[in-house]
Write a structure and sequence with these properties.
Largest sheet: 4 strands, antiparallel
InterPro entries: N_methyl_site (IPR012902)
Strand content: 25-35%
Pfam families: N_methyl (PF07963)
Keywords: Membrane, Transmembrane, Transmembrane helix
Protein name: General secretion pathway protein GspI
Strand order of the largest sheet: 1-2-3-4
Oligomer: single chain
Structural class: alpha+beta
Radius of gyration: 30 Å
Number of helices: 1
């Protein structure tokens, strides 16, 4: 009688079970990766909107107060506060920007320096 080589049914079932478990782990990992990429895309959108608003609003003269608006569906609020400085020194402003789109929200802060206004010559 010839002895045939090959896998038994039990070995095949074990291999298929192991393959199913590994496939499930990979599918979960791919799903998490897709969710992470979506979160990064939303975060990038808020960050780009914040950079645009700061570039636009801080380009000209600054004055303490609150400004707000909407940029392509991203709502923003900018608080500008002049920081104390000595007379004749450049003016320092703190800009606090909040941006939001739906349930997502981000906050950014920066400092801007402006030349001191010459009030003595008035």
């Amino acid at each position: 009688m010839k002895h045939q080589g090959g896998f038994t049914l039990l070995e095949m079932l074990a291999a298929l079970t192991l393959m199913a478990i590994c496939s499930s782990v990979l599918l979960v990992a791919f799903g998490q990766s897709a969710r992470s990429l979506l979160q990064v895309a939303h975060s990038d959108r808020l960050t780009h909107a914040a950079v645009s608003v700061l570039d636009q609003e801080a380009a000209g003269p600054l004055a303490s107060g609150v400004r707000h608006g909407d940029l392509d569906g991203v709502a923003w609020q900018l608080r500008i506060a002049q920081q104390p400085t000595r007379i004749g020194q450049p003016q320092l402003f703190r800009l606090d920007l909040s941006v939001s789109e739906g349930p997502r929200h981000a906050s950014f802060s920066t400092l801007k320096l402006r030349a001191a206004s010459d009030k003595a010559g008035l």
